Fold these 2 entries.
Entry 1:
Amino acid sequence: MSEPDSEAPFCLPRMPLTRLPKKPLPLGTIDTHFHVFRSDAPLNTPCSYTPQIATTADWIAFANRLGIGRGILVQPSVYGLDNQVLVEALAAFPDRLRGIVVIDPETDPTEIARLDRLGVRGVRINTRNKGGLPLTAAETLAANIRDFGWSLQLQISPDQIDGLAGRLPHLGVRFVLDHLGFIPLADGAWRQHLPALQRLADNPSGYVKLTAPYRLTREHGYAGFAEVVQALAASHPEKLLWGSDWPHTELWSDMPDDADLIDGMQEAIGAPTLARKIFIENAETLFFGR
């Protein structure tokens, strides 16, 4: 790995998986959001954090232990437009992995076709981190990826959700909101943001990731997260995706326990039919149709 940016602090190392969840994940679970990092891969300048190394092999071991069948590898902001680590992972596990890249909006269709053959199924827009693509790239990207059936993956701020609910449906591609749009959970603040999430999911092309509650609140037990999950599962069960967010980058304290996170998610979802949709079926439709 290249020398870290002096303003990009090292993330905490992930916690080892010391126990399994109380209830096994549904057979065939798909992890729709994780990252990997290789020690010799150069970091983008600038970047928002310096990652701890967590390789594809590390995720495979993590997934095997938990019974996760397949995964969607998401390009982290610290690698900018250099998707080499992701591409190598897809090539190593073509039946098990699909990928979400970060590319120049003007990327040639022949390069998009090459990435598509390797298992890439979307492009990430990220307005929250250095090295991410801006929302202004959405129209150009959508036009270039539409024929490939790719989606736009969006890491944005809560105040951008409402505008997207009206803007994105006209782009003609599916779109996926990372980490519940970073809506704040503390003191019931999620209640004022829930309608915007539901409006976004009302669109046939809109999906929401139920991921990373530790990014939405500092409260112990992630108060409010279960309520948001339950409300969305009641209104839009076919539009929800689960992801581990492994290895939990950009944390400087309170590294979560993965088994605790899965326990909390399964308790919030409850019904096995809902669990199959959220842990398997919705992701299978979105990412593994071919």
Entry 2:
Amino acid sequence: MTLASFAGTRAVRALAVGVVIFTASVAGIDSRLPESIAVLWPANAILLAVLVRHRAARRHLEVWSAAAVGYVAADLSQGTAATPAVVLAVANLAGVVVALLVFVRLDVADVRVATPSTVVRLASGCVAGCAVGAVIGATVAVSYFGGTWPEGWLSWFACDLVNYACLLPVLLTVRRWRWTSWTGLVGALRTVATSWTLLIALLVVAWLMRDSGSAVAFTMPALMACALGGRMFATALMVMTSTVAMLALSVGVGASAAPAPVSTTTQIALALLALGPLLVAAATAERRRLLDEIRQATTRDDLTGVLRRGEFAARAQELLAHGDSTGMPTAFLMMDLDHFKLLNDRRGHRAGDQALVEFSAILRDVLGSQRDDPRGAIIGRVGGEEFAALLPGVSVERARALAEEIRRRQEDRARADFGADGSTVSIGVSGCTGRHTLDELMMSADASVYSAKRQGRNDVVVFADTVLRAVGD
């Protein structure tokens, strides 16, 4: 990329930020009520999310300048005088800067895999940003809407805080959608359908009651139900929906009377209520990650990442049982690295570990690419330098071709890494249709491995009977 194109890209990004901030600010100004600051103010949360998710943007003066212009231009376009427009922009930018500095100081990690600690740190940064921004913004608030400076500070603080709590979690946890299948889409929708149905029902009840004071917490059961699923973005989206709806109810949207300003108590209560479901969702997600790590540690080999012998046997038996009812072919590979002890003796155990890791990578690459059965291969480490693979839906002929590809790649890799000391691989192939035990397949493939060893190693041998006959045939 040339310097000119790089500068051009930065200018385009800065322009995009300015346009977004201008649009969001205009929307926020339109939500102002008589004698009140804005009910919704999304601009600060949007700018902060951009700076958190795109670290390079923090260092570009163009981005900050564009954001400032967006703030000022929005106020000027809505009839605000130049001086208060500039002061308001400074207040908003000051709040964003302080919140960002706190995030950096507290080393906030990727919020898309948030922990409860991350949520607390985010809340701390937002509170600090709102407090500092309100120091400057209160001066304009008092000039425009009257009252004392502490009242203006509290009004600005509460408005900014509820908007951060409402919008920032959604903006920080949203992911790029990855289309997989209709089944995956239906499954994802099904997992949140109950929570959303409950949320909508509770919102309807709250609206019918028209009592904003008691209705603020009405949606909490739905939010907690979603949070217990451990999905941060889904929870954040529901929190945003609930908070916006409660703000609208508090203002009096749909009521016969004229809209009234939202009290600072209601705004702060909504912000605090938003924190609970997010903490629960983060805690649930972290618990799931820990359980996955424990499951990984107990089922996967520490060095190679393939299945341990016990887990391999359990999964293989399950697939073989499935083959009993379908009659589909199943192939089995037993693989033993040649002269592995010699490699360890001459090059050290670190070289041996490297050889095992690289061989397991070859297995995943070759066997993971075969698509004869959608469930793919099961690969396990069944001994020190011994590996096995069960290939459901794969014929013996296809398994032999795959084994030959594994043998060839291992030979090339071993010679490239260790020369004459490298470990080639001897592979035994067996197959079956119908009802067979794992022991039968392993024994026949193991016998073929020994045949390959006797024939000089670095070879693929298919079991003499080619395909085992089903029991009872």
